[in-house]
């Protein structure tokens, strides 16, 4: 292409100068700038190579998508369902010892728009916690924090035998990976670390700040709420790629 044709895409670097004196062009660049660019390119290539290597060596991680749900203390459950009511299992969950119960409640926030049939997960905890998505929070009219129950948003819970109001109960769960200590060692992470995860598919995404959580009894699984899963156009039949510790 002639110089006029090139000139319409020119970014004024001088590389398409019509005199073709490339040495003069390069000499016009600051040598420190060239060194800085070369160093940054080298770091980027090394990082990408490391990510690819990790992805190829580490096994894929199954995905679990969590809809809104809650965890309750036993005494809170009895306030809502009646004293002496048996806490019944509906089905077992992926993690050993955890289950979806047969019981659900209605939750109500500031906008007085109830969300019904929010399932209680077992076993009982030593705290009350409602986990919602950001979409749920907007509908409820609350502003829950990500993961910090001490700053949780207020909600009213309504059961068949009573209702309760809690000042700090609603959170948006941070995206996280459950691992056994053995899994963590294989991935080169520990409890409390953060990592990157790539979700393949028709709308692939790379998620950052994915929390690592470890427990001796846990099976390997990435946990996302419905907002994150819907953004990537995936469901629970997906396997995701570990893209390295942050």
Describe this structure in words.
By secondary structure, this protein is α+β, with helices and mostly antiparallel strands. The chain has three domains: 22-57; 59-64 and 175-245, Barwin-like endoglucanases (Beta Barrel), CATH 2.40.40; 66-171, no CATH class. The chain is 27% helix and 33% strand. It is built from seven helices and 13 strands. The strands form two sheets. Strands 1-12-9-11-10-13 form a six-stranded mixed barrel. β4 (99-108) and β5 (115-122) form a beta hairpin. Mean pLDDT is 86; it is low at 1-22.
- Number of beta-strand segments: 13
Hey, roughly how much beta strand do the residues contain? 25-35%
Stretches where pLDDT is under 50 for at least 5 consecutive residues are 1-22
Total tally of structural domains: 3
Question: What is the helix fraction of residues, given as a range?
Answer: 25-40%
Give the overall shape, derived from the CA principal axes: elongated
Question: Structural class from helices and strands?
Answer: alpha+beta
Number of continuous helical runs: 7
Going across the biggest sheet, name each strand in turn.
Answer: 1-12-9-11-10-13
Radius of gyration: 26 Å
Main sheet summary? 6 strands, mixed, barrel
User: Gap between N and C termini, in Å?
Assistant: 45 Å
Q: Which whole number gives the mean pLDDT?
A: 86
The H-and-E topology, N to C, reads as HHHEEHEEEEHEEEHEEEHE
């Amino acid at each position: 292409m002639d110089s006029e044709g090139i000139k319409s895409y020119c970014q004024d670097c001088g590389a398409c100068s019509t005199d073709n004196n490339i040495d003069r062009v390069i000499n016009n660049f600051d040598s420190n700038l060239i060194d800085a660019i070369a160093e940054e390119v080298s770091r980027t290539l090394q990082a990408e190579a490391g990510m690819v290597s990790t992805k190829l060596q580490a096994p894929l991680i199954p995905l679990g998508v969590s809809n809104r749900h809650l965890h309750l203390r036993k005494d809170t459950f009895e306030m809502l369902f009646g004293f002496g009511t048996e806490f019944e299992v509906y089905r077992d969950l992926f993690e050993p010892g955890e289950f979806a119960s047969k019981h659900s409640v209605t939750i109500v926030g500031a906008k007085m728009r109830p969300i019904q049939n929010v399932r209680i997960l077992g076993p009982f905890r030593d705290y009350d916690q409602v986990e919602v998505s950001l979409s749920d929070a907007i509908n409820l009219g609350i502003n829950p924090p990500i993961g910090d129950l001490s700053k949780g948003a207020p909600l009213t819970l309504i059961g068949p035998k009573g209702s309760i109001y809690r000042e700090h109960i609603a959170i948006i769960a941070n995206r996280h990976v459950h691992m056994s200590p053995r899994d963590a060692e294989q991935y080169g992470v520990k409890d409390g670390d953060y990592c990157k995860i790539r979700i393949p598919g028709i709308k692939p995404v790379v998620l950052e700040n994915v929390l690592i959580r470890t427990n001796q009894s846990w099976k390997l699984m990435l946990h996302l709420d419905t907002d994150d899963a819907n953004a990537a156009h995936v469901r629970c039949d997906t396997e995701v790629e570990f893209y390295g510790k942050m």
